[in-house]
Amino acid sequence: MPKHGKKYRKAAEGLELTARFAVEEAMAKVVESAYAKFDETVDVAINLGVDPKYSDQMVRGACSLPHGLGKDVRVAVFCKGEKQAEAREAGAEIVGAEDLVAEVKEGKLDFDKAVATPDVMALVGQIGRVLGPRGLMPNAKTGTVTFDVANAVKEMKAGRVEFKVDKAGVLHAPIGKVSFGAEKLMDNLKTIVETVNRLKPSSAKGAYMKAMSLSSTMGPGYKVDPALIRKFIEG
Fold it and tell me: For residue 52, which of 169, 142, 163 has the smallest C-alpha distance?
């Protein structure tokens, strides 16, 4: 078992490991228990009833949060010609094609998100092993391989979140900062949960959203009562 500091233990004091809460209650507790000197990020973890080893049960997508993520996002766009000016005008910090690929090969990855136009994906594929493990590889399914680079850049700047279920069937996503307050965080959470719900694979059997947990960067996780997840989606 990992050892936790005094502040974490105080935040988790009285928290039963088996305790389950309504979504609103869990969110309130996350905000109340945040203790770090910095503005902690709030995350959601959803255990899905899917088996990701089957391609038709892979859950992957993206959505724009109504209140953003509360942080500056540096965007790189792999494109050529007039699309480069379009990307810069939309706010992209880094724009290029062969030159940008060369920089990434040298280890220069000074960006948080990446977009690519379809015509340069063969180039970007050369650095897939670098971008992939960092979650930076552009993908058509998440809208980051597109000729509409202006819209893609603006969405990322505004707080676009991409998510993908892991091998254990768990999906993790950030939903904002503690300083947002519970109400705005709830709005962001609902957007993500509704999006994930719409992406339910037709081949998935049984309960889809089996469990959910909310936590801040340094704080304990608060588990949501599975029976109340559906109520939250439909409410």
Answer: 169
